[in-house]
Please model this.
Amino acid sequence: MTDTPLDFGDPADLDRLRHEFRAWLAQHPLPERESGEPVQVFLHRWHRLLHSGGWVGLDVPERYGGRGLTALHQVAISDELGACRAPGVPRIGYLAHALLEFGSEEQRLRFLPRMLAGDEVWCQGFSEPGAGSDLAGMSTFAKRHDGHYTVRGQKLWTSYAQYSGLCLLLARTDRSAPAHKSISAFVLPLDRPGVTVRPLRAANGDDEFCELFLDDVRVEESERVGAEGVGWALAMTTVSYERNALDTGHISKYGLLVERLRRHAAERGGSLPDGLLSRIGRCVVDYEVLVAHARRRTAERLAGQVAGPESSVDKLLMTRTEQRLYDTALEVFPAELAQEGGELFGDYLYSRAASVYGGTSQIQRNIIAKRILHLPSNG
Amino acid sequence: MEREEFVLVRETVRSLAPRYGVTSPDEVKPATRAAAQQALDDMGLRDLRRTSPPAATAQECALLAEEHGRHPLTTSLLGTVLLAPELLRLLGDDTSRGTPTVALTSELRFPGPESADLVAWDCEGADGALCVATDGTVTRVELGPTAPSTDLLRAIREVPGDTPVETVGRLTAPDRLRWQAYALVVVTAELVGAAGSFVEQAVEYARVRRQYGQAIGSFQAVQHLLADATVLVEAGTSATRYAAWCLDNEPPERALTAARVAKAEVNSSALEAVYAGMQVFGGIAQTWEHIAHLYLRKVRLGATLLATTGDLLPALAAPEVTR
Model:
């Protein structure tokens, strides 16, 4: 596949950035999560604080509110946050890329600075009750009128819609054209008449996932992102960045748990049950391989490659790492299984979703087989 | 290193394959082995890691090893071109003559504190072997008769118990870590190359082999098998290249950890990827004539070479500071 050498440019430049960031962190301690404060609200406070220091969207051009640096600089900040056990950078990179690639100049100027600042919180309205793995089979329809559309349909798994002001929405704009050419993308303000947001309770008790009901919601033509029919291409770009190893704050979270397992192994010495030490070692290997893999993707991004189907490889690797890690952690800390509402067990339950959200592991394998290996289609 | 150079490094080794890559184990004969080794020696790659500072980065050397592993070649690229010259470079020795390879224990590990039987590993074209003791002392030992090996492509010879031992020098403690990390990276890179190439060959086969009136590569069960094998190869590639990069850019302790991680990953993933490829080839891959078992033998034996998963996982489970 790719043959890009690992080359990360001038290390002094990165060292300077890291030092600058550490100095800023020293003066801006982590906010405490207040009791009863929803995680998403807490993370939003953190997002705004980070942005006030200029630490969000480092790889976004300056005219759109970023700092015009590279993906490597953004990764360095993620590394630093992971090292001091802070929450990761806000997960907006993939939405920003969708606007950068498909939005009009006016839309980029209007939306990106406020997205980076956390002034406007975004969610993603892609999946539907009848369109999960078969995303192209969506039925939400945007009917065209003179200068605007009316949208009717239902979206599902819209993460944190209840805390969001804007939604990147996919809807069909043509009932007769083939699925992949009939989908368009819109920026939908969630306070529009006809929009209903209903949070779902997930297996771990969280209310991340929402349903979105759209009853003849008016959307202006100027709120369409890109031309009619490019929605599918936009969605594929977005999920490529979403699946990519670089655009998630997960890796540092895994690193913290891996270190906790290692410390436990050191404390318990030889008294760990048979085979458990090797399973911890396996988690270390999974994690370090993922870090190495993310470095390789960073080098590729710096060399000018855009996210594509190889992000399906990244997603499968992240899933492997996360699911094996939390499963092992429960073996190492069995007391966590004896109480309901514990954080580790909650994260374990969430890890089971890793092979489903953002495209199931089976869909990722289909993408690898067809778009990377170019294996023939059935029939 | 620019991308173009990266591709050029690959091409040097790739150019050997059409002429000297074997297409069946029956082609592995002393005369063909010697001719292939001569062709490799004529490329003058041995100086890549012989000078100080080295002419090639560890990343480039790992890439050479990766490409070498992709083809059924009998040449000693690892032992005589990449590993022994690196030892002499680390020792600052620019007077030694001859073409040494490296000595390992008969179980193919780095020699430990206890005395053990030695073999000269990957010794095609070699006239001696360098042995690194746990205190860093490097000695040169002589070669005995050919030793049996399940990897039919790799030449191994015994080291006679009464061999005269000539001390070449002594590695500093950091250089001994560098040496181990470099050896692990180069060996791992060859295994990744072998697995990657074999999976690609299986993908090609799945495109042309027809059953039930269609290419077997159109069946989802086969597609997912090959997709999973591809993920394993990509992960191993990332881990190995990162470990090589660490050798060029990070302290030796960090490089050794990264190299151990890569070896632990690839020990199992290269084997699993080759199993998947063999499954796709089906019956034909079970025959003596087919090259599948040459790849299988290389990665099966490779999984025990220098460090097994059983050695590595408990060691990596220890916190960073106490390791």
The first helix of chain B runs from residue 3 to 14. Strands of chain B lie at 100-105, 118-121, 128-132, 137-141, 156-158, 166-170, 210-211, 214-215. Chain B has ten helices and eight strands.
